[in-house]
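Onboarding guide, step 5: your first structure request.
Type a short instruction followed by the sequence, for example:

Predict the 3D structure of this protein.
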Amino acid sequence: MIDGLRASRRAAVVTLFLCGALSLAPAGAQAPAPLQAVLADLDRQLTADFAADGTAGVALGVVAEGRLVWTRNFGVADAETRRPVTSDTAFRIGSITKQFTALALLQAVEDGRMRLTDPLEKYVPEIRQMKHVPAGTPPVTLLQVATMTAGIAREPECEAPLDGPVSRWTVKLLSCLPGTGYVNEPGTEYLYSNIGYALLGLAIERAVGRPFTEYVTERTFKPLGMTRTAFEPDATLRRDLARGYSRRGREGPVSSAVADRELDGRGYKVPNGAILSTVNDLAKFVAWELGQAPAAVLKRETQDANYRRVYSATNARGELTLTSGYGIGFQAQRRGEVVILGHGGSTAGYLASALFHRASGLGVVVLRNCDGCGLTPGSTASRILDRLVSTQ
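The system replies with structure tokens like these:
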């Protein structure tokens, strides 16, 4: 297998002033003229980058003017069958799922079913079972959970938290609550929490009276035409699914065991990391994030206001910084006058990044079916978007 793979080679409320061969997608689309030279140069660089890595595959896409205008695919979706990666190849997108959960929260708020200031325990009273609850503090709010300032630990301490089918994710989540604790006082620091977003998903499910996965599918996937995006792969999606590979060390062994197992379910990690999608589909979501999609998924004013607010901006040492932060479901990075929004994702065998710059209307999607490999989606997407924005 290794030979085959190598051959295929933080809570001050802070406002950030959010003021192969090259292929085109969909068929007949063409990148805007100012971008073409940059994309040609990036194509040469990416070809060399993947040649130096050469493990499994990568799918990339650029969004401009509300559509996918450029794609590039390298390597294979499956090292055993040598099936090539395409823009319709499905990858696990990990924590990019949180953006869809945050959108579901905003939709429920817009519908009058929830308020951002509601306490989480209004919908999930079971959180009273959690340990290390800070004394004398107000209840944790949905807003705090959504912006990673609730003080809840990143992961639960329970037996096999990642085992179990999507249909039983709420059961697994609730069974893990007694083993989940608070790390700090709510509303005081940024602390990334996967189980916090799972709790947010359960709160949404109970508020809207529908299964969480069904709600997101009906309210977001379908209106945006994301027909090849799902929380678990059906027969059709499995045919175009990239097999996930993990590598430890530059020349270490490669394994698909964990990624293969998680196709049967990711335990409690559904609202925070279960979605599978393609470059073609994620481009539609990025176009919506840029305010360029026609579907009535959320009121434009709600969407615009959301991307102007960042609620946490501290570094790993707890120091206040205006260069990074987390909003309701999105990460923000400021580089000079440029503010890049979006999210990354990481699961066993898969890495993903979907970034966008609203002022220029540009976005980038990078999906990878190998974790631990040289070419990484986060840095690659940032590099591509930085170059493209500089042309505007």
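Each response can be followed by summary notes, for example: Residues 1-28 have pLDDT under 50 and may be disordered.
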